[in-house]
């Protein structure tokens, strides 16, 4: 640009010096006058042409630059839009994968709930079958003893009857008609008549006793057979239930493996624990406490340090200890115990919740009044329904590992106005 301006500046300078210096002075004055006028007019034209030429040259030079800049800007914009499109696609894909994973986990948890409820029902059924088998076995004991007594009695009666018949045969005793035909002494006839009457009555009584014993023995044997058939039926049902239980346990293991594969990071695990806790808090906040009083006449608040533990075992997780996620602390204690062991109520109360809950499995909540509640989680089976009145020491559930637990036991909590309390401050001694 500077070259162009210099070029036009030089042309202008040459044009102003175009008149010869040797001309006469008068002519120079006149020429200068005319030249001034001409120069004035021509200067305007030249200035206009020069400006137009400058603009044209500027446009000629700057247009490719502008085009290049515009092209660069357009290319940069397109690149940013492409990157944004790729990012949006990745976000959409990731969200779809997360939604799919969440849906898959929800489906698996529903399957786990169904399986663990089925296992609980099978366990209850097996418990009832065990009781029925035990009752049938107990009922069989007196019947079996009675059968043996009748058999012994029948043996004695048979022996007596056989002895009587043998004695009569050995003495060659004649019948009453033969005595009359032989015309023996009348006194002897009277004596013989009494003897035969006694003999016949005794024999008839023995026969009647034998028949009665046989009838009793038959009834006893029929009862025993009936009880044996019932017992066999219960044992078959128990065997079927055991097979079903094993199948359900195997399915549960498969579901748990699939659930564990849906958890990729500790952050996911933490979020699941937070969701489980949120569900529990929601359930507890929705339960209203009643005004139950302990059988001893003392309110629950005065039983601190005197309550029994709900089951025998050892505390593997204490109140307030942290989970694998440091931001979460246990709100109760976990009592490790074998599957199927009884869980007993710690005090008088009413069952207000008995169902399956994510992360806690089969959960039983008993309301003890005045804002106090006890919670029993990870049960194998729940033996009481909502609304049931509970007495201290009453069996309400059995120890299990529901809710996806790998180790069997019961998560035991005590709450007051929904706030967790340390069970070790309320229960005496150790489990």
Name a few traits of the molecule.
single chain, disordered N terminus, 3 domains, alpha+beta, Glucose Permease (Domain IIA), 10-stranded antiparallel sheet, Helix Hairpins, 431 residues
Layout of helices and strands, plus pairs?
Elements: H1 2-16, H2 25-170, H3 176-181, H4 186-261, H5 266-285, E1 314-317, E2 333-336, E3 342-344, E4 349-357, E5 361-369, E6 372-382, E7 389-390, E8 395-399, E9 409-416, E10 419-421
Antiparallel strand pairs: 1-2, 2-9, 3-8, 4-5, 4-7, 5-6, 6-8, 6-9, 9-10
Report on the architecture of this protein.
It is a single chain. This protein folds into 3 domains: 2-83, no CATH class; 114-261, Helix Hairpins; 266-425, Distorted Sandwich (Glucose Permease (Domain IIA)), CATH 2.70.70.10. Residues 1-32 have low confidence and may be disordered. The protein is of the alpha+beta class and 431 residues long. It has 5 helices and 10 strands, in the order αααααββββββββββ. The protein has helices at 2-16, 25-170, 176-181, 186-261, 266-285, and strands spanning 314-317, 333-336, 342-344, 349-357, 361-369, 372-382, 389-390, 395-399, 409-416, 419-421. The relative contact order is 0.08. Helices cover 61% and strands 13% of the residues. A hairpin with a 2-residue loop joins strand 5 (361-369) and strand 6 (372-382). The radius of gyration is 55 Å and the shape is elongated.
